[in-house]
Amino acid sequence: MINKESRLAEVRQFLPEWLEYSRKEAASGEVASYIPELSKAPHDALGVHLLDVEGDSALAGDCGMSFTLQSISKVFTLILALMDNGESAVFERVGMEPTGDNFNSMLKLELVRPGIPFNPLINAGAITISSMIRGATPEEKSARILDFFRRLSGGSSLEVNEAVYQSEFATGNLNRSIAYFLVENGVLDGNIEEILSVYFRHCSIEATCRDLARMALVLAGDGTDPLTGEYLIPRRYVQIAKTFMITCGMYNASGEFAIKAGLPAKSGVSGGILAFVPGALGIGVVGPALNAKGNSSAGVHLIERLSQRMDWSLF
Ligand SMILES: NC(=O)CC[C@H](N)C(=O)O
């Protein structure tokens, strides 16, 4: 058990120094450019916000910067799809296993029958999950997702970054290929452009490190917001999301991250990372320069170091 008060006090004291040390890792990374709009992010930025169950914060660096959630959103659309459809319907369409491949790989879709995506956190799985969000139109589905994310982030006013959305929609041919493949396999049905618009929109929701920390805090609280007492997610669905975050949350570097940090986490190509210490605190990090696995170079370094110094690993 960690002593929350004294831990965050200690973190607050050392955080600026640790952050500057981790920032150097950005030098070895690259800002994502396959979505053109993302390439505008500052290469050396690094920000962190930690929020504990009492509402105490520790923050450092470029934590005022906003960025799009990208793959981080997949954790919460999975949860919404579980709430909308139930566990068995969701797992008829997506699997429960890590792939060991890149997040946008199509390799295993062809290799393993019946061709359902390996898990809901790779693009194929997340596109399938987007199609399962309740709503009569894509606009209604997107509005429900945004509303859910706003409630999870403490009644915030999160918005879609339209420029990033348009940039993804215009250039997302690999995601289109995945979607057509899923239709062919009988996993997806419906209008592909509409399904992709729901997917690209939730990836393009803009947030700050504090928003990530706030959403992570709800997961740390097993689905109940520790700051308001509001029940937002059934505990079972948090358990499912948490397990996927450990096994697949950092793409094909999840094993290494589990060993080095030992925390449930999800990263996105914008350089954001959401992580949490169950029962204790939510963590939001951004560092746009990515390593070869597509995770924030400096962000991974910072979370691993924090977890090791503070003895936060679950394992
Ligand atoms: N890994 C990511 O963050 C990928 C999300 C991005 N929107 C994509 O589909 O490529």
Structure description:
- This protein has 315 residues and is an alpha+beta fold.
- It folds into two domains: 4-67 and 207-310, 3-Layer(aba) Sandwich (Beta-lactamase); 71-203, Beta-lactamase (3-Layer(aba) Sandwich).
- The chain is built from 13 helices and ten strands.
- α11 crosses α12.
- The radius of gyration is 18 Å and the shape is globular.
- The two termini are 12 Å apart.
- The mean pLDDT is 94.
- Glutamine (GLN) is lined by residues 70-71, 103-104, 123, 168, 175, 203, 268-269, 294.
What's the helix and strand layout?
Layout (H helix, E strand, L loop, with lengths): L3 H20 L6 E2 L15 E6 L4 E5 L5 E2 L4 H13 L1 H7 L13 H5 L11 H9 L6 H15 L6 E2 L1 H10 L1 H12 L7 H12 L1 E3 L1 H12 L14 H14 L5 H7 L4 E3 L4 E6 L3 E6 L2 E2 L6 H14 L5
Antiparallel strand pairs: 1-10, 2-3, 2-9, 4-6, 5-6, 7-8, 8-9
Family: Belongs to the glutaminase family.
Subunit structure: Homotetramer.
Pfam families: Glutaminase
Keywords:
alpha+beta, Beta-lactamase, 2 domains, 5-stranded antiparallel β-sheet, 3-stranded antiparallel β-sheet, 12% strand, globular, binds glutamine
Query: Level of helix content?
Result: 40-55%
At CATH level 3, the topology of the largest domain is Beta-lactamase
Give average pLDDT, whole number: 94
Secondary-structure element series: HEEEEHHHHHEHHHEHHHEEEEH
Low-confidence stretches: none
The class by helix and strand makeup works out as alpha+beta
CATH class of the largest domain: Alpha Beta
Task: Give the CATH architecture of the largest domain.
Answer: 3-Layer(aba) Sandwich
Q: What general outline do the C-alpha atoms trace? A: globular
Integer count of domains = 2
The small molecules bound here are: glutamine
Distance between the termini: 12 Å
Strand order of the largest sheet: 3-2-9-8-7
Main sheet record: 5 strands, antiparallel
Number-wise, the strands total 10
Our Rg estimate from Cα atoms comes to: 18 Å
Pfam family, one: Glutaminase
Binding site for substrate: 71, 123, 168, 175, 199, 251, 269
InterPro entries: Beta-lactam/transpept-like, Glutaminase
Subunit structure: Homotetramer.
